[in-house]
């Protein structure tokens, strides 16, 4: 998927630093839907950069059907992203029905108080972590909480 760091791709393309972009697959390039994906590929074309897919031999910037093929593949990629979200939500719902706890564990207010009391005596975070069988980063987090 395209991120801010990939703006460099378009900048370098505009500056003529390369002639071809080889994609592993279109769905690895962008899952943002037909319009945005086509916009990205058209930006490359406007800069004189060709593109082709390593795993999808029929996807390249030559030929008269390139826009149709790209549009279809972009739509499929977007649908896959939607289906992934649906599967994730269904899995979470199933886990909740089974009684599984979802998300981060809650903060034990008693343990936070204990950590702060031990810290007030001058004990190091690492020693507190060892004594309470929690990680040093959890100790730091607990010290920053308001109780």
TrEMBL record:
Keywords (alphabetical) are:
DNA recombination, DNA-binding
The source's domain of life comes to: Bacteria
Sequence ranges assigned to domain Resolvase/invertase-type recombinase catalytic in this UniProt record:
1-99
Q: Supply the SUPFAM superfamilies for this chain.
A: Resolvase-like (SSF53041)
**Any single Pfam family the record assigns to this protein:** Resolvase
Q: Matching PANTHER family, A to Z? A: DNA-INVERTASE FROM LAMBDOID PROPHAGE, SERINE RECOMBINASE PINE-RELATED
Q: What is this protein called?
A: Recombinase family protein
> From what organism does this protein derive?
Hymenobacter tibetensis
Taxon lineage: Bacteria, Pseudomonadati, Bacteroidota, Cytophagia, Cytophagales
């Amino acid at each position: 998927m395209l991120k801010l760091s990939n703006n460099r791709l378009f900048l370098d393309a505009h500056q003529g630093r390369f002639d071809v972009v080889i994609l592993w697959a279109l769905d690895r390039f962008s899952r943002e839907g037909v319009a945005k994906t086509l916009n990205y590929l058209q930006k490359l074309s406007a800069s004189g950069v060709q593109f082709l897919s390593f795993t999808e031999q029929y996807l390249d910037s030559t030929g008269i059907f390139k826009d149709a093929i790209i549009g279809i593949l972009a739509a499929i990629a977007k649908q896959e992203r939607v289906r992934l979200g649906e599967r994730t939500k269904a899995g979470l719902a199933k886990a909740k029905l089974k009684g599984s706890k979802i998300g981060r564990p809650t903060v034990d207010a008693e343990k936070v108080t204990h950590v702060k009391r031990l810290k007030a005596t001058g004990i190091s975070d690492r020693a507190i972590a060892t004594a309470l069988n929690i990680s040093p980063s959890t100790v730091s987090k607990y010290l920053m909480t308001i109780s």
